[in-house]
Amino acid sequence: MRHPIAVLILCLLTSVAAGSASAADREKLLSEPGVYGTFAVFQMDQEWWKLDKAARMAALTEVKAALKKHGERLAIDAYLLRGLYERGDFFLRVHSTELTQTQDFLLELMGTTAGRYMKNTVTLNGITKKLNYVPAFSDEVKAALKTPLDPGLKPYAIVIPIRKDAAWWLTDQEGRTARMKEHTEASIPYLKTVKRKLYHASGLDDVDFLTYFETAKLDDFNNLVIALERVQENRHNAQFGRPTILGTIRPIEDILEVLAR
Predict the structure, then answer these.
(1) Are 38 and 123 in contact (CB under 8 A)?
(2) Three-state SS at 245
(3) What is the tens place of the pLDDT at every residue in 88-123?
(4) Which of 196, 235, 242, 261 is catalytic?
(5) Which residue among 54, 55, 151, 236 sits deepest, i.e. has the most Cβ atoms within 10 Å of its Cβ?
(6) How many CB atoms sit inside 10 A of residue 68's CB?
(7) Among candidates 45, 66, 44, which has minimal Cα distance to 111?
(8) 176 is catalytic
(9) Residue 257 CA from chain centroid, whole number
(10) For residues 14 and 64, is the Cβ–Cβ distance under 8 A?
(11) Please, where are the H alpha helices in the chain?
């Protein structure tokens, strides 16, 4: 016979999975320009871990309800930080067509019983845009950019905010394109193993860009960053990281299970 807590966990996970049938159009939200991306890092208060399991599971049912409700118009992804990042236990990446929708979700999440034990340690906001420099690249570079990712799971996720110096923005389009071409060429050897996504953040946050990566090979990611540090464009990075957020991509049910332990 299963332990009652195990039964409750199973019911919670099943309910979350069932709610995905009416989820937002993820492909559209994750691929089109003009979509807002928010990265919200949460750390559970020490008092949370002092609650008994039954109380934690009961509190997490409210979290599950909020995820199901807002998942009908948002793309919500979950990442486990506990053990890899000291300023958080998990983070959520939320995509929306209106930033108010993301705010409404986070307000409801933090208003739940479990949410009262969550400290929002980091929040980063950006928006996706059409490619700015690639249209001016050579056909050879454009073809290389179509290199397909290696198949298989990419369990690691890394978020790195970047702020450019004033000299970057004062450089003309031709000069910035030349530097970004060099940047792009340095990244080509890693296109098979490192997936990336760019968010523009100027005016929406204290940085200019949010860079998001997925990979199964952290050694390749490490080498990619080193390669990018060697190009001319890197001289214009007034901020790279601070914070650098490293976690693992997990189904939301896995995150809830960790929080219920």
Answers:
(1) yes
(2) strand
(3) 999 999 999 999 999 999 999 999 999 999 999 999
(4) 196
(5) 236
(6) 17
(7) 66
(8) no
(9) 20
(10) no
(11) 4-19, 26-31, 46-50, 53-70, 99-110, 139-144, 166-170, 173-187, 218-229, 252-260
